[in-house]
Structure formats: structure tokens, C-alpha cells
Amino acid sequence: MTDPSAELEAFRAEVRTWIEQNFPKSLAGRAGALMGGETIDDSQREALEWGKRLGAKGWATPTWPAEYGGGGLSQTQARVLNQELDRAGAFNPLVRTTGMGITMVGPTILEYGTEDQKQRHIPRICRGEVFWSLGYSEPNAGSDLASLQTRAEDAGDHWVVNGQKTWTSGADISDWCGVLVRTDPDAPKRDGISFLMIDMNQPGIETRPIRLIGGASPFCETFFNDARAEKNEMLGEMNAGWTVGKRLLQHERQSQTGATSGLGGGPRKSLGDLAKEYVGVDEQGRLADPDLRARVTDQMMEAKAHALTLARIAAEARGNAKVSAAASIMKNAASTIAQKRAELSLEIMGSQGLGWEGEGFEKSELDAVRNWLSGKAMSIYGGSFEIQNNIIAKNILGLPENTQRG
Amino acid sequence: MAALTEEQALLQEQAKSWVREEAPVAKFREMRDSGSEHGFDKATWASMAEMGWAGILVPEEYGGVDLGYLTFGVVLEELGRQLTASPLFASGLVGTSALVLSGSDAQKQAWLPRVAEGSAILTLAVDEGPRHAPSATGLVAEEKDGGFVLRGSKTHVLEGGSADAFVVVARTGGEPSSDAGISLFLVEADARGVSRQRLVTADSRGHARVDFDGVEVGSEALIGTRNEGAPVLHAVLDRARAGLGAEMMGVASQSFDMTLDYLKNRVQFGQVIGSFQGLGHRAAGLYTEMELARSCVEAALQALDREADDVPALCSLSKCKAGEFVHHMTNEMIQMHGGIGMTDEFDAGLYLKRARVLEATYGNPAFHRDRYATLKGF
Ligand SMILES: Cc1cc2nc3c(=O)[nH]c(=O)nc-3n(C[C@H](O)[C@H](O)[C@H](O)COP(=O)(O)OP(=O)(O)OC[C@H]3O[C@@H](n4cnc5c(N)ncnc54)[C@H](O)[C@@H]3O)c2cc1C
User: Fold this and answer.
1) Is B195 inside a domain boundary?
2) Chain B residue with minimal CA distance to A359?
3) Of A252, A316, A359, A365, which one is the catalytic site residue?
4) Most buried among A293, A382, B106, B295, using CB within 10 Å?
5) CATH number at residue B70
């Protein structure tokens, strides 16, 4: 009989050696700096190179089947891989450079895709060769997604798509987009929707980037004017797009529970340490501002409770990789805690936490302001805070819908 | 605002329609996008001065109208509503009140008429670190040849880049961090040894770091009595806090109005989103918070006009409650607008960014909770 723990330790040793040989040490702990910015410098090129190696090994998507380019690892092995990446200060650049490919689209194709779709799309996601965006929201269909109007008509050997999407993250730089379209205008709202995978490099698609309050432009208005989608690019059955699309959203929520930071790359400075630096301590080493001290403590305790809950959910679900309703609870908890943290960071930095650009501010201070602003979106995308609460009330607690429709 | 005199009510109307027509938030956006050096539009500032607003607190003998703090607050609230950028607050309220409270006749003669007509900008240079700590002044003024030499730096000086003169908080004696030994000086911006660096902040307004590198001034630059500047400083700061309370009420009430309007118009699931109780109850809660905060701000302004005993406590109360409300309100504005609230094209982000600067200026809510407790004797 083989000893499972010895096997795991052997695997750990293998992983460690591989990381040592492949991860450039100069990048250690720099995930945030390297994967955020808008310009690409040398160390970013190095990070992309590292991403390629990780992708070629299949370890950017460790639990996906090896036959499609994934790592073929068990959940337990994947955890070991993550621990070792963390230990080395390494991170997974492909989570960012594939757009929504790794976190959402890939898992959904693996679940609903035809063999042909898996073979064409999955290996390219694993290797980090394609950037995926998602075209769900429309100007009049946000929380009420089922009201979407963008339509696809059957033109014999392909689909013709017309309509407008909005808030499409990364549409302007994406290669492919997963689009929810109406294929049966006469059916009840949710029964006439299909999920199409659309090649973004074509004349029928126009994107207009929209600037965010934090200054960057990661999302777009996306216009489809007689855009073309191939017949073999419908994911799931025709008119079953609502089920496929909702499933994908569960993966999105799962990715936002805080269970995977998506980037890794070592721990950040604790709020307590940040506060000590800016506010100072009294003779006993306590934070000099007791009011702030209590609120920082409160945030840290909530963050710890959240982490413990994630661990408990993981322990209870061991071997069962399915995403559950718990994602809704944990998404709301995660966004609340992260937003509170961002507000406290600003407060701690005082007037140094109010900078926008230029001299007089440290880079970490300017980053804190931008992160604070962009983090406001966490409770809006992927199903807003309120929509998650509706789901919890209805699906978990079994409360009637009443006037709280949707 | 409640309980306004006829004169104040008229001024409020004037301010409301002027701001709406001449200086709406679109104008602020234009100013921001033009990369304006000083964080305000000169022509806008000139017409405010023309209407006499810069002289609201200046005594008549020095060219002002002497209408008091509630009147000033009425104007500041309207400006806050549209994020109208100008040195009005820093100069017409903060700088002016230092001279009115403690300046010599010569100082008043030299500066107040120009401040009142808007041809000079006066501001307070107090904080030296990232957190408001007025008594922690480390900038030193050493006596020399019957005058003083100033050495040190001030940060986040409001309108620091465009100011013509600074009311500088300096240490002439006493222990570090103590009120004893603090003195105030009036220092011209073009004095030798003064240099400034613009700080580009999230609210796109005119903040600067100002360095005083061996700046020599005569004894006539001293405002009030040597070593006894602290009581004046605290009185000036309280006036400033009450004014900030009014501006925060403006920023927050406008955010409330915009959000309420959206709740009544945005349709999802075939109904206006305000019909969802999850949002309606929160709007009701925000409305309650707004009314409570407004009472505090008005009480502080009125107490200043009456020269009441409880000015410090009321000013801390008002800075705290208005600060908490504008914080909560701007966050809720973004959340309740969904995706559109996150876009720079929409105004919500401008209000959010301005709110955080106002909250931190001259003491955040935590600072004022602590001060309130101290004032209440525990
Ligand atoms: C940074 C960012 C990135 C995004 N990326 C993408 C993307 O890549 N692809 C994509 O398709 N979409 C994307 N979105 C859009 C996002 O999914 C929508 O913004 C979201 O679904 C909310 O829709 P909405 O903006 O229309 O707001 P609305 O639905 O109009 O909501 C407005 C407010 O009403 C509340 N509300 C609505 N219905 C109810 C109810 N029944 N009960 C209680 N409250 C309710 C909402 O919670 C919100 O507070 C992104 C959004 C952001 C901010």
C-alpha cells in the first residue's frame, strides 16, 4: 500500500524544485505591482514569460484535465501547488491575462461544451493564449439580466448578432467573448436565451472603452452590428443559455469569495502594521488612536472569521468541487471586508491617503487610493450585494419573494 | 436650512441659482480635465468675489459685510452641492477669521479689504504630517534681531499654491505637542525662503506642501501674542470645521438627491428599483441621518454667531456627524447606481473623492469623537 502523505510530500518536493528552476526570483512578491499597471516594462515581460512556463506545464489551471492542457491534479495536489507558489512569492499571471478565461469561461466550457469546443478552446486558455470577455449586461438589463435584448438570428450556416452590451470588462482587448443573446423572442424571458462564443476580431463588433472612477478603462460598451457567430460556437443547448449563463456566474462568485486571491504573491502588510507606521504607538505599544484601534481590530476579526469560514467550507466539501450557494454569502462577506479595509487604509494614511498622482505621495499611497476606488465595484459586478442577499433569502433561507422580485 | 433671516434666505436663493447656472459640477469637471494649476477657475472665483461672498465675515470697516457664520455656511452648502471649486473657504473663512479674531489693526488694514474683494488669498498653514494634529506643531520661529526666523514645513495647505499669504502656526516655546508656546505668524507667499509644491489630490483641488526655509519676518508679522496663539488657533479651526460641515452637507444632500432620483427612475424587473425594500429602507435611513447631521451643522454655525460657550463641542459634533454622513452617503450613492456609478462620466465619483478630502480636513470623525469626549470631561 502506498502512503498518501508520503506521495504528497514527494509531489511537494517536485513542485518546489520546478518553481525554483522556473520562477524568476526577482518577481517574488510583486504580483500586485506587475499585474496591475497599464504599461509593460521589462519585469512585466518577465512575468508574462513566467506565465507561459506555468501554462505550458498545465499548472495555471491545475485541476483541469490533462488531455486538454490542464494540470490534471487532484484538489489536494492543487492546494500543495498553491502553498508552494505562495511560499516562493510566485503568482499565476494567466488569471489576469486570460481575462475571464480561467476563472469563469473555462470551467463552464468543461461542464457544458462539446468535445470539439473543449479541444478548440480549453488548451488555449490553459496556455494563456486567449483573452476572454463576457457580454452579459446591457443598458436595461443589469441585475435583471433576463431582460436582455441582444438577439441572434439563424442565417443558415451561422448566427447574425445585433444589439448592445455594456460594462463589458476587457472587451476592447479580448479575443473571444461569451455573449448571452436572445434566440427566441416569443418564449418567456428566461427560456429564449442562448450562450454564444463570439470571435471578437471581426468588423461587426465595435467597442468603446469607458473610464472608471479610479482612472483606468477596463470596461466597454460593446456594439454588435450584424456580427457573425459560427454554428459550432453555441455553448449548451439552444435556448438553454440562462442555465449555462447562471452556472458561469456561480463560478464568477466563487472566484470572488476571497478563496483564491486570483493572484497570490505573498501577504500584504496588515492593517495593524500600516496603522502603527502612520499613527504611532503609546508606551505599551498600543496604537496611539484608540478609536481607530478598535475599528481596525474589528475589520481584522471579520477578515479572520471570513478566512476561517472559507477553510470550514473547504473542509466540509473536500472532494466535492461543486460551487454552492455558499458562494453568495462569501461573496458579500468578502466584498464588505475588502471595502472596509480599503476605507480604513485611506483613513490611516490621512492626507497622504488622498493623493491622485505626482510628487508628494509614495506609490503605495497612490495605489491605496486607486484600489479603494476600483474596489467599490466588488459589490456591484457578478451579481450586486443586494442581488446576492435576494438569492440568500430565497434559495438558502426559503423566504418567499414578495415584492423583492428577481 | 431652517430659521434663516430674510437676508440669509435671499442669499441662499442667489447662491443656489448662481451655482446652478454659472458653476455647476460640469464646470468643476472641465476645470479638472484642463489640469488647472491651482485647482479652481479664476473667472468663477472672480464672480464669487464680485457678489461679495469673500467679505461675508469681514467687518464693514475693512470692506466686508460682516454677516456671520450661518450666512457663510448657507453659501458653502450650495457650493458643496455642485463641487464648485474656489479659495472662498480657505481665504474668506479660515484665513479671515484668524485676522478678525486676533490680527492687529495694521494686519487687518493690509489684508482684509483685499481678501473681501477677492484680490488676495489668505490661508492657514497648520498640519505637518498626514493626520490633523494642530498642537503638534514643530515648525520653529526663532527670535532674531527683534524679528523671527521660521524653519519647517506644512503639508496639505488648502489653496497653498495660489495663496498670497499664510497664517503660519509656529512654535516659539513650550514642549513639543503642547499648546503652550504656539504662535501665529502672517507670512507673505513671496517672502524669501518660502517655496511650495503642488499636491495632486483625488479631489483635484488646490493643495500644496509649503516649506519655510529660514524665512525672516519682522515682529509685526506676529498675529496676537507670542506663545499664546493656541486658543486663537483652536477658535479658527472650529470656525473652519463648522464651515466644512456646511460644505459636507452640500456634497451629501446633492448625493442624496441624485440617488433618490435614480431610485425613482431606474427600472429593473419591471419596477423602479426604489420599490425594492432593500433599497427603500436604506434610503429612509440615509434621510434620517441627513436630518440629524444638518441640525448639528446649523447649531454649530449659529453658536458661532451667538458666541456661545459650547462652540468647541458643537463644532466637533458637526464635523463628526456631517463627516460620517457624507462618507456613508457617497458610498451608498455608488452602490445604488450599480455599474453607472463606477464610471468617470457620471458624477458620483467626483462627490466620493471630494467627500473623503473634506472628511479628513481639520480632523476626521475619530479625531472629533475623541475631542468631544475630552470636552465632555471623560
Ligand atoms: C467594474 C465592473 C465590471 C463589470 N464587468 C462586466 C462584464 O465583464 N460583463 C458584464 O456583462 N457585466 C459586467 N459588469 C456589469 C455588472 O454585472 C452590472 O453592473 C450589475 O449586474 C448591476 O447592473 P446595473 O449596473 O444595471 O445596476 P442595476 O441593476 O440598475 O442596479 C442598481 C441598484 O439597484 C439594486 N437592485 C437591482 N435589483 C434589485 C432587487 N431586486 N432588489 C434589491 N436591489 C436591487 C442593485 O443592487 C443596485 O444597487 C461590470 C460592472 C462593473 C462595475
Assistant:
1) yes
2) B199
3) A252
4) A382
5) 1.10.540.10
pLDDT in tens, B305-332: 999 999 999 999 999 999 999 999 999 9
Q: Is the pLDDT of residue A201 over 50?
A: yes
Cα–Cα distances (Å) from A76 to A62, A81, A317, in that order, read 11, 9, 12
Which one-letter amino acid corresponds to residue A18? Answer: W
Domain boundary among B85, B120, B155: B120
- Flag whether residue B16 sits within 8 Å of chain A, measured between CB atoms: no
Which residue in chain A is spatially nearest to B131 when comparing CA positions?
Answer: A350
CATH number of A132-239: 2.40.110.10
* Whether A358 and B198 lie within 8 Å, measured CB to CB: yes
Look up the domain containing B148 and give its range. Answer: 124-227
Which pairs with CB-CB distance under 8 Å and at least 24 residues apart come from A281-290?
Answer: A289/B366, A289/B370, A290/B370
**Closest CA–CA distance from residue B217 to any residue of chain A (Å):** 27
Residue A382 CA: which ligand 1 atom is closest?
A: 17
Please indicate whether, in this complex, the C-beta atoms of A354 and B360 are within 8 angstroms of each other: yes
Q: What is the CA(A261)–ligand 1 centre distance, in A?
A: 22
Residues B57, B92, single domain; the answer is yes
Distance from the A80 Cα atom to the nearest Cα atom in chain B, whole angstroms? 37
Length reported for chain B: 378
**Domain match, B129 and B108 both:** no
Closest CA of chain B from A347, distance in Å: 8
Q: What is the pLDDT of residue B78?
A: 98
- Using a CB-CB cut-off of 8 Å, the residues of chain A touching B262 are none
A347 is catalytic: no
Residues with CB under 6 A from ligand 1: A 133-137, 142-143, 167-169, 219, 377, 380-381, 384, 386-387, 390, 404-406; B 266, 268-269, 273, 276, 278-279, 335-336, 338-339, 342
C-alpha cell at A361: 505621495
In chain B, the residue whose alpha carbon lies closest to the alpha carbon of A351 is B130
Q: Give B278 Cα–ligand 1 centroid separation in angstroms.
A: 15
Q: Which alpha helices (DSSP H) does B56-142 contain, by range?
A: 69-81, 96-102, 105-117
Joined together, the cell numbers standing for residue B314 give 458643537
As a dihedral over the C-alpha atoms of residue A344, residue A349, residue A350, residue A351, rounded to 10 degrees, the angle is -130
User: Cβ of B131 and A353 within 8 Å?
Assistant: no
pLDDT tens track for A50-101: 999 999 999 999 999 999 999 999 988 998 999 999 899 998 999 889 999 9
Q: Are B26 and B35 in contact (CB under 8 A)?
A: no
Q: Could you write out the three-class secondary structure of chain A?
A: CCCHHHHHHHHHHHHHHHHHHHCCHHHCCCHHHHHHCCCCCHHHHHHHHHHHHHHHCCCCCCCCCHHHCCCCCCHHHHHHHHHHHHHCCCECCHHHHCECHHHHHHHHHHHHCCHHHHHHHHHHHHCCCCCEEEECCECCECCCHHHCCCEEEECCCEEEEEEEEEEEECHHHCCEEEEEEECCCCCCHHHHEEEEEEECCCCCEEEEEECECCCCCCEEEEEEEEEEEEHHHEECCCCCHHHHHHHHHHHHHHHCCCCCCCCECCCCCCHHHHHHHHHCECCCCCECCHHHHHHHHHHHHHHHHHHHHHHHHHHHCCCCCCCCCHHHHHHHHHHHHHHHHHHHHHHHHHHHHHEEECCCCCHHHHHHHHHHHHHHHHHCCCCCHHHHHHHHHHHHCCCCCCCCCC
According to CATH, the topology of domain A4-97 is Butyryl-Coa Dehydrogenase, subunit A; domain 1 (1.10.540)
Query: Over the stretch A23-58, which tens digit does the pLDDT of each residue have?
Result: 999 888 877 666 554 455 777 888 889 999 999 999
Whole-model pTM: value is: 0.95
Res. B82: pLDDT tops 70? yes
Alpha carbon dihedral B330, B335, B337, B339, in 10-degree steps, equals 120
Q: Which CATH class is domain A269-396?
A: mainly alpha
